[in-house]
């Protein structure tokens, strides 16, 4: 890596400083905030002894999530990866199937596919949303698949293509309507990876509620946290029932008998963690409003930063701006890395997008389309400090 | 089910009443207790914002678990099932392998095998410990296996037998030395399912530290709880390192880069849950001492209960008596069920052992040895209320 400090790096750091001020103890990328009923609810769990699989908060959290997202059902689970694993299983994805995912995503999107014994199949992203590109998807499917007895067949590998998992990158909604249209034409189910997009809307409807199933994550770095946690969203009551059953060891209800009738999982969210989630959800709107103030300020100040482009919410979308991001107008891994090291050295925690999934050794030989936009985005995206409390500093 | 109240059922309930008194609000099977630093540590997590993957309690919990069990390493994970899944993967168990487990166990023991794509292979238990019978195991392996190029081959199925998972039932240690000898003669690794046996010792050494790997569970019904949680125990530093890596997405350490080099899992225990665990561990000795007082009292009073036999810790063992149990001297499913309904109706939460795993539909066609003792135990075991606080009532 060439370590010459670029003029661009100074510009970058000076904009961060202009918005956030001097980093005395450093600004991290995204910090959770516990300013509401967190302690009250968690204390209640401890005082009553209901910290584990019994207790009211899991039900309550599921109800509040469903209300907030306007999904018919939300099933709370132990984390986003587990949610994705179960969602894929519920769509009938199994060993030897291929599942279309973006190469520009967190590794969990691919891992959950692998946990089903299935194989990720990478398709390109678009600069418009940072997510799966409907046109690239359609073109790729047209060129490389055929209808066969068992479903859609990849003519190159001979395997079944069994589903599509679009991901709402950094909270920005993908073109989900267009993706659903393409998926429909090829007979594929869609599972939305909305791990990052709680509070994000596409044409007024909450992300994660368009596909057959959607998933959320409440990891410590997300807009709300349960310590670790996730949820499955669906409008299909039967899928919701199955999701609950499969994530709680498939035990038939009985007063004392232990009778289970499927290979299933312990993917339960403990009541203790759900209690935290309930309190966090109560303040979500306030959190998102303050995050948006911060975003506004970034947007304004980055306008005068030549060579850098502030990433804004896509057309017809309302984004939670989970992680604010800038793009280098001239993509370059080495320039990107100089900006990253300069900013991190100066106390502003910044990070690149993920290493593209098809470059990771365990997924390097998976099938893929051409990925020019993903490559370009990888060499240009930088996430910047995005905690809600930073809004107060940026006034 | 014949519902005639047996004289045995009256005896059973009257003994429970004699020990515990009248169940005003009912006595549940096993309740957690939060009488130490739970509040303090959990509140600290919330106050500092460290509830998720960063924070000191996970390290601290692992250190305390290792100290307590005298295992060289403990790796905290999201629950016991996840611990078992990873332990099996670390022993090289994969699709198409068979793994020896007792049919008398909780479904998670079999599920974790299935999660590796492997097949449970059931062997009988012994009345001496309620766990795997070393003699039955040896006889079965002699009769049905042969040495082959890839390892031990099941001559009936043609598949590789790749490991043995003994389980310490209700906290009572199995004959682990003998099992390790048999395993050694057949070249099989041993993974101890010590989910129920934190605080149980075989010849002075903690359960879960004899095999290549051992696992613990901190589910809400166990002797200590983290809400949901588990741990992997091992004396092998390389296995411990790999366990940590595989349970935390196999991310290579880097200041900002996301580079992962194996298909891995999000099986992290959140810091919030680890904080609870640290406080629970501090009081474990006290909890176990009170549980033992309760056990003493049960033992004494059940002596005069004809037809019932109180289950005591095996020879050379110190048991945590996680769940106290009685056995019907004449095994009978219908008699057992009458005792269960009578006691539960009277407010004493009691339960049978698990439905034998080879009787569950998804495992019904798995390979198995003859299981006469497991069948007998299934028709005779009943767990009775075992929370530590009951010791105070039973004085
Ligand atoms: C895009 C994406 N998918 C899946 C996940 C997995 O969620 P979790 O970390 O809760 O398992 C995450 C978050 O970490 C994510 O960002
Ligand atoms: C014998 C046995 N194995 C495995 C487990 C799985 O542990 P967990 O419930 O924490 O996933 C349990 C406890 O529930 C158990 O009793």
TrEMBL record, chains A, B:
GO terms for molecular function: GDP-4-dehydro-6-deoxy-D-mannose-4-aminotransferase activity; pyridoxal phosphate binding. Keywords: Aminotransferase, Pyridoxal phosphate, Transferase. The active site is at 222 (proton acceptor). One of its GO terms (biological process) is polysaccharide biosynthetic process. The keyword Ribonucleoprotein does not apply. Its EC number is 2.6.1.102. The keyword Transferase applies. The modification N6-(pyridoxal phosphate)lysine is found at residue 222. It catalyses: GDP-alpha-D-perosamine + 2-oxoglutarate = GDP-4-dehydro-alpha-D-rhamnose + L-glutamate. Its cofactor is pyridoxal 5'-phosphate. Gene3D superfamilies: Aspartate Aminotransferase, domain 1, Type I PLP-dependent aspartate aminotransferase-like (Major domain). Pathway: Bacterial outer membrane biogenesis; LPS O-antigen biosynthesis. Belongs to the DegT/DnrJ/EryC1 family. This is GDP-perosamine synthase. It comes from Chromobacterium rhizoryzae.
């Amino acid at each position: 890596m060439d370590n010459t400090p670029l003029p661009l790096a100074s510009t970058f750091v000076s904009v961060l400083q202009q918005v956030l001020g001097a980093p005395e103890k450093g600004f991290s990328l995204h910090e959770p905030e516990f300013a509401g009923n967190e302690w009250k609810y968690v204390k209640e769990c401890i005082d009553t002894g209901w910290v584990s699989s019994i207790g009211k908060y899991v039900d309550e959290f599921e109800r509040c999530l469903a209300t907030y997202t306007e999904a018919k059902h939300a099933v709370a689970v132990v984390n986003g990866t587990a949610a994705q694993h179960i969602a894929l299983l519920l769509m009938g994805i199994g060993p030897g199937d291929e599942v279309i995912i973006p190469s520009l995503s967190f590794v969990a999107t691919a891992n959950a596919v692998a946990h089903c014994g299935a194989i990720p199949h990478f398709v390109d992203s678009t600069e418009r949303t940072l997510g799966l590109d409907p046109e690239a998807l359609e073109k790729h499917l047209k060129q490389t698949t055929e209808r066969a007895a068992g479903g859609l067949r990849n003519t190159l590998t001979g395997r079944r293509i069994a589903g599509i998992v679009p991901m709402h990158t950094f909270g920005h909604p993908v073109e989900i309507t267009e993706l659903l249209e393409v998926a429909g034409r090829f007979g594929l189910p869609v599972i939305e990876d909305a791990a990052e997009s709680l509070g994000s809307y596409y044409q007024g409807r909450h992300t994660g509620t368009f596909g057959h199933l959607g998933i959320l994550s409440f990891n410590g770095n997300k807009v709300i946290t349960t310590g670790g946690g996730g949820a499955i969203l669906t409008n299909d009551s039967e899928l919701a029932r199955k999701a609950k059953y499969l994530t709680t060891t498939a035990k038939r209800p009985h007063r004392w008998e232990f009778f289970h009738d499927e290979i299933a999982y312990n993917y339960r969210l403990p009541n203790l963690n759900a209690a935290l989630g309930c309190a966090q959800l109560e303040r979500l709107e306030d959190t998102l409003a303050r995050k948006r103030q911060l975003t506004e300020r970034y947007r304004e100040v980055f306008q005068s930063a030549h060579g850098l482009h502030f990433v804004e919410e896509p057309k017809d979308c309302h984004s939670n701006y989970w992680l604010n991001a800038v793009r280098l107008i001239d993509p370059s891994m080495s320039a990107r890395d100089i900006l990253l090291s300069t900013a991190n050295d100066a106390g502003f925690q910044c990070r690149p997008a993920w290493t593209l999934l098809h470059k990771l050794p365990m997924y390097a030989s998976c099938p893929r389309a051409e990925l020019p936009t993903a490559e370009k985005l990888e060499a240009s995206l930088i996430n910047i400090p995005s905690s809600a409390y930073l809004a107060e500093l940026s006034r």
